[in-house]
Design a protein that fits this description.
With about 250 residues, this protein is α/β, with parallel strands linked by helices. The protein has a single domain, classed as Class I glutamine amidotransferase (GATase) domain (Rossmann fold), CATH 3.40.50.
């Protein structure tokens, strides 16, 4: 599979810089096409209006990179033929940030999880930011409760399992993430991949790369071993086994 999971950063929405342009360019390059079909999914948003606003920014960014853009809307779920066609036609599927738990519930309810697995196996680029990065992993360190109950408690959300690790976005700029990930990993097998804003994990088959749009940004592998919490900065490239296995 070919996956690009972004740990955070601004996408150039009104009033913000376009910090992740380099990642967007890499996504298009990964497709191997001059004018790829780009499909955006924003089930992470609580309303159709919010999803449309998000899509308008993403469509502007990726149209400028040569893409033909489409949006998988919640109203499309009323006709699964539309859903199937949009996913099948896509060269790139990009999942937006927001409420990870809401996203995963919808993907599973409508069997879109299975469609995305099939698409990935056929070569579609699977990518996204924050919640849209978590979703490709076994689990994620998620702030989904803030969207429903204004709770600051972080929760473990089960993802699609394409990458066998727990993913933590925003590791540097959301203060609760580091200590909570340490807590969460006490009861989670394997490793966590903790990505700061302006970093991304690129995977192509059995190799990975850590991409950055800011030189100072970092990515980490975290886990417990014999009662000790281990935190290791990830090398910029390597194989998947090195990424997911405890040192």
């Amino acid at each position: 599979m070919r996956i690009l999971a972004i740990g955070g950063g601004e996408n150039g929405r009104p009033g913000t810089p376009y910090e992740i342009k380099k990642f967007d360019e890499e996504i298009v390059k990964m497709s191997g096409k001059k004018n790829p079909n780009f499909l955006f999914i924003a089930f992470t948003q609580k309303s159709a209006e919010a999803a449309e606003g998000y899509y308008s920014v993403m469509c502007k960014n990726f149209t400028a990179l040569g893409c033909k853009c489409e949006h998988l809307r919640e109203k499309d779920l009323l006709d699964m033929n539309i859903v199937i066609k949009k996913i099948t036609d896509a060269n790139i599927v990009y999942v937006g940030g927001g409420n990870t738990l809401r996203l995963m519930n919808i993907l599973r309810k409508y069997h879109i999880d299975e469609m995305l697995h099939t698409a990935g196996e056929k070569g579609t680029i699977l990518c996204g930011i924050s919640a849209g990065a978590i979703c490709w992993h076994n689990f994620g360190n998620s702030d989904s409760r803030k969207f429903t109950s204004n709770s600051t408690k972080l929760i473990k959300v089960t993802g699609l399992g394409f990458i066998p690790a727990l993913y933590c976005p925003h590791y540097d700029n959301e203060s609760a993430r580091q200590e909570d990930l340490k807590r969460m990993m006490k009861t989670t097998k394997g490793v966590a991949l903790a990505f700061e804003s302006c970093t991304a994990l690129k995977i192509v088959d059995n190799e990975y790369w850590v991409l950055k749009t800011k030189e100072e940004a970092r990515a980490w592998k975290c886990y417990w071993s014999k009662g000790e919490y281990i935190k290791i900065e990830l090398p910029t490239t390597g194989n998947i086994e090195d990424l997911i296995v405890k040192n």
